[in-house]
Amino acid sequence: MKIYVSCDMEGATGVVRWEQVSADKADYAFGCAMQRHDLLAVVEAAFEFGATEILVNDSHARMINLDVRQLPKGVTVVSGAGKPLSMVEAVEGADRAFFVAYHAMAGTARAVLDHTMSGDAFEVTLDGIAVGETGFNAAVAGHFGVPVGLVTGDEALCREARALLGDELVVCSVKEGLGRQAARVLTPEVTAQKLRTAVREALQGGKTPRPFRAGSPCQVGLTVLNSAQGDAVDNLPGTVRHSGRTFSFRAGDVVEGYRWFRAALALAGTVGR
Ligand SMILES: [Zn+2]
């Protein structure tokens, strides 16, 4: 069984603040260590419970957070940013996708470091349903017929993922958000055990998650933070502007919609918040 792991950082054990996930800050070393911790727990369990091949996509920020020298053999890493499918690059061909150290969508209460792809997205919808990175990435994986079998992060993320992807999804919470940058956190020894149990359930628990599919065509909605960002997004061909900061785009399929969304956010990011 071939497992694909999209590995973010905000949802890792112990991580609660932006400084811990920002490469220009001293606390970043902690974020990297905990991202690796949760990933290793998942990867080792996946091999133990039936995975024959594991492809890990480093999915946070510059996407060079994981040190390949510290990962077990048998794992292949997709490293670096600028990938056409970003957080789900190279998902095609996998039997299951696991989203590790993920976080809740922008605007979620009591969710550690909630956001959607960048701090410039106020709200994102896919076919009229509010989605965060979990939902949008799951839809891209679903486009290639790959179901998401496991999502790990904080309590709010686990609720979001379950509500969207259904009961066949296994979720694993490693912390409970008390605010955007505060949480009740479990120790690594405890979360390693929880993650191992979750992987076993995902691979040997009789779960049959189905690919999460958007429509073809599909409708992507994006609200950015302010109207100046809106002016920048408005330059994208095919974009419909509904207000100063709310847009929609009708995409031929979710992959096209994902690429529009990322292009729109890149434009929004050129303007101040
Ligand atoms: Zn991230």
Automatic annotation (TrEMBL):
GO molecular function, one term: metal ion binding
SUPFAM superfamilies membership: Dipeptide transport protein
InterPro entries: DppA_N (IPR027476), Peptidase_M55 (IPR007035), Peptidase_M55_sf (IPR036177)
Active site residues of this protein: 115
Pfam families with a match to the protein in the record: Peptidase_M55 (PF04951)
Amino-acid positions noted as binding Zn(2+) 1 in the UniProt annotation, renumbered to this chain: 8, 10
Binding site for Zn(2+) 2: 8, 60, 103, 133
Annotated TM spans: none
Alphabetically ordered keywords of this record: Metal-binding, Zinc
CDD domains: DAP_dppA_1
Entry protein name: M55 family metallopeptidase
